[in-house]
Every structure is written in structure tokens, then in C-alpha cells.
Amino acid sequence: DVQVRQEEIKEELTKADLDRRVDIYLTETETIWILVLPAVVMSTESEDAERVLYRNKVYTDMCKSKADDDRFVEKTVQTINGATKNKEVQCDRIIMEDKGKMVTSCGFYDTFNASEIEPMFKTEGSTDNKTEKATETSSKPHTTKKQDQTTPVSSNKGSTTSVTLESAAVAKNQEEEECQSEALPIPENLQEGLFFMERILMENIFQPKLAAYRQFPILIDPDVTSDRSGTEGDKKEAKQENVDRQKDEQEEAFTDPSILSALKETTPIPTLEWLWSYACGLTNGHSISSMAWSKVNPDLLAVGYGAFDFKGQKKGLACCWSLKNPMWPERIFQCEYGVTALDFSMASPNLLAVGMYNGSVTIYDVQSCNDTVLLDSSESPNKHTGPVWQLRWVEQDRGEAGGGKRERLFCISADGRITEWYIQKRLDCTDLMKIKRKESEKKRLPGKKERKSEALISRQAAGMCFDFHPKDTNFYLAGTEEGCIYQCSCSRNGQILKTYRGHKGPVYKVTWNPLSTDMFLSCSADWSIILWHRDSQTPVLTFSSASAFVHDIMWSSKSAFMFAAVNESRVEIWDLRVSILEPVLSRFASPTVKFTSVLFAKNTDCLLVGDSQGEVGVFLLQNLAALNSSKV
């Protein structure tokens, strides 16, 4: 009975399973190719079939020969990787330029309606040409307006031409311009008229700035309408904000609380107000190396553009800027090498001497409109072999026949020579001084043997700067790359009268005091400015306000205690009557700009500062006289 019952239970379970049966159908999905390596198959009838069969046979024979070799190991892949190589990529330097153009509403209107404006002046020749064109178009097969807009038009010969409304409008404008140019005669004095018009516009635009430069009262137009009063008020507010900002910067520059409190109580704070900059698109990116005023025209400024380092050398410029047009130079002289020094002549004010980085000296005539070289030292056998760092026209009286003073041109170069140039049929020179390299003076300790002096690579020291005495031009100072300053005489060639040691780097500038002629200043790459006395070989005072190279210094012609200095980060005004520890006035440069040169303006309280981007900033010195009077 038990077995029968078990069989019945199995049958019931089997029936229940059949009732719950699930049918599963398996189908093949679409094939997805992850990696496809196409085989190269070539027909036996192709041109390269024999070459491919030959290479396949060579490969099969090579595999068979490797199978009998004991060193042969069969692997899935035997690919030999080539040696890695470095590929250098070079490209020209990308130069960015900012350009702008003044656009008026009239210009917008004329440009927008150029295609609809009819020519105002028509000549007989132009009308005849138009009639001929009209007859030619009438002889062609007639086309509808729709065909003109869709542009394909077929001729009898089957050739197709593309004619659009835009090209027709451009051709029409060109015809109108040609007709107007033929109809309007060009007067002979047009260029002269445009020149005077440019002068008038510059005077109107820069009138407030020029008045401040010449210390004249600023004129205000009484006919200014009320609707423009808001604009004028905005300008005045912006100007006042600029002045306040400058005052705040100057307050931060003073660290002595006693000086600051005295200034606040008694006198206004001195400031440097920016007026304008001598710059144009041609000078952008050129570092300013030197500046010089004309000896007879105080409004004419010569600026030299050239790099000081060897890696950044490019073609140089020598530009003559006038106060009557600060936006474009009056004369432009293109130079093959960077300009490092320049100076105007006193006897012949139209002559401009230019020294270059390759050691050549050229003379230009600024009266001529051409930029051709008047004289050049390229054919001189005694020309310099290093950069000409400074040159000067100097009037000297050496007791020659005929009496009177004679102007001479002197240069100092990195080849260690100070030369005197003379003009005959060509430009040639003679050596006035060869600066010899001095051995370092080291004290020998007792009990130690004296070491042998090291051999010098060059017997001559590189000259960096020089300056002639303002009263007796037979004496001059010469600064060298070693940091020494030598006092020499033109009557004693090759002899050094005195040696001034105080700098630990190259001397970039040395200058006599024009009012106190026994004192002179020097600046160097060791971040310092040193005040010297002619009769003392030890420094009188040493000034150092920033950790940067001091590129240029200049005495003021109005005060024997005031001088200006520029380093890479800022321009400084020092007044020794006020402080010998810090400058009384300073202005910082932009983060991407470095100051390179400085120059006081003639007959006015202004300062010119050149930078590494080709701009000469003109700054107005304010409230310095009141500061000096309060300290006397």
C-alpha cells in the first residue's frame, strides 16, 4: 500500500509540474565587432602581385629556417619596438598688438548707404563708359530678376558666370570712387594743409595737458552746453579721483611719521601726475635705451629704441618726437641693429648721432624728410667691436690754431675703448683711452703664502658710461663693467688720474652735478646709488631703496640736492634736503613693464620716463617747491 501511495503522489506532482511549465526560446543577437583587423587581399592580376608573392615566399622560408634553430622560441607576437625620439617644435614669437579706430555716426551712415549713393560728380569719360556698358548689357539675352538673384546664368557658348547682388554693389562703389577721384583735382598744397590741420587737432585735443606741461592756466570753453556739463563733471571727478589715488600712494611711500605729519600740517603732498605718453604702433614692444633733448629746440625729443641683452636683439629705431604731436613722431630712422645711445649736436643742431649694439655709429640729418644715413662708421678700420653704450657731443678748447671751441663726438664701448670721432670725407675715429682691467686687491693674511694671480681673459675692461665735467670738459669720468669709476683727462691719453671703488656690479650711469660741479652720482646693478666728491675716493652717501637694478639717474637742473632715478620697478625723486634715507616721491611701474631711462624736461617741472614697452611717459612734478621751502 505504501508503494502504491508513493506512485500516486509522483503522478500528482508530475501533473502539477506540467501545468507550471515555462517555454524559453533562445535567439541570436546582432554581432558587435569590438576590434576589426582587415586583411590585405590583392588580386593576382594586379601590378604588385609578383612583388607581394615574392615577399610572402621570403617570409615563409624565414619561418622554416627558424624552426630548425635551437634559439628559436615560438611566441604569439615578435614585434621589435623602435627607439623613442624627441621631436622639437619651433615657431616664431607671437606678437600681440592692440589697434583701434575712431568711428562716428556719419561713417556708419555712409557705409550702410554706400550702395544707394549716386556719384555726385560725373565726368564725360565716365558717362561714356557707362553708356558703352549699357549697350553691352542690352545686347545680352534678357534675364529675369529671379535669375539674377539665383546667380546661375547661361550664355550662348555654354559657360556659366556667378553674379551676385553683393559683388554688383561693390563694383558700383568702386566705379563711383573712380569717378569722384577723376572729377576732384588734387591741389598741390594738400599735404601742407593736412599737416596744419593735424597740428590744430593735436592742439585742441592736448590743450589741457600742454598747458599743465608749460605751467600755463588751463582754459575752459565758456560755450559748453548744459547737456555736456555732466560729461565734463565726470571728467573732473575722474581727474580728482586720480589725484586722490596718487596722494594715497605717496602717503604709503612715506614711512617716517614725523615727515608725514609735518607734510599734512604745513604743505601739500608732492605728486607725480601723468600727462601723456609718446607712443605709437611702430614703437610698441621696443625697449627704450636712451633719450636726448635738442640743444636749440626744447620741444624736440630724440628717443632710441633697442634691447640691452643679447638674446632680445632686433632692429632698432631712432625717433624724433615733437611736443606739437605726441601721437606720432616727426622723424623715424630705421636701424639694422638696436639703438643704444644718441645725442644732438650743439654746433649743427640738425645732426643726430646714433650708437648701435653692433658697435657702429651713424649720423642722421633731422632736417631732411628722408631717413637715409648721412655718415656711417661701417667703412672705418677703427670702429668699435662691442656695443656703443653712450656717446656725447662735447665742446672743447685744446688751444688749436684759430681759437674758439670745437665740438667733438666721443663714444664709450664694451670693447674697452673711449674714442673721439671726426668728420672728413668719412666718419673715422682715434682712441682717446683704452680702459685696462684692474686686478682685485686682496689683503694677504699673515702666515699665508701669496697666491698667483689668475690670468685675465681680456686685458681691457668693458666701458659702460662716461660724463664730461660741466666746466672743464678736458676731464671726464668713465664707469666700467667691473664696478670701478675712473677719472681721466683728454690731454693725458691712456692715463688714469683717480679710481673710485664702491660698486660691486657694472656701473650703468655716472653724471656730474650741474650746479655743484665737485659732486657726482653713479648707479649700478648692485641696487645702489652712490654720491661721490671729486677729491675723495670713498663714497660720501649710499642710497638703496629697492632690490632692483638701477638703470638710470639724472640731476635736476633747478636744485643741487634733487635727482631722479629709475630701477626696474619704479621711478624715484630724491631730495637730500628732505631725506637721505628714502625718496620723497616715487611711482611704481605696471607688473609687465620695466622702467629703463629717465630725463628731466627743459624749462618746466616735468619728468620723462622710458619703459620696456616703447612708451615715454610725461609726468608733472607737483608741490615739490613747497616741500623744499618748508624744510629749509
TrEMBL record:
What PROSITE patterns does the record point to? WD_REPEATS_2
GO molecular function terms attached to this record: dynein heavy chain binding; dynein light chain binding
From start to end residue, where is composition biased (Polar residues)?
A: 149-163
* Record has Glycoprotein as a keyword: no
Q: Name one GO biological process term.
A: cilium movement
One of the record's GO cellular component terms? dynein axonemal particle
Where are the compositionally biased (Basic and acidic residues) regions? 121-135, 225-248
Ranges where the record places region Disordered: 121-163, 222-256
- Spans of WD repeats, please give: 500-542
The protein's location, in the record's own words, is: Cytoplasm, Cytoskeleton, Flagellum axoneme; Dynein axonemal particle
Q: Which UniProt keywords apply?
A: Cell projection, Cilium, Cytoplasm, Cytoskeleton, Flagellum, Repeat, WD repeat
Lineage: superkingdom:
Eukaryota
What name does this protein carry? Answer: Dynein axonemal intermediate chain 4
List the source organism.
Eolophus roseicapilla (Galah cockatoo)
* GN (gene name): Wdr78
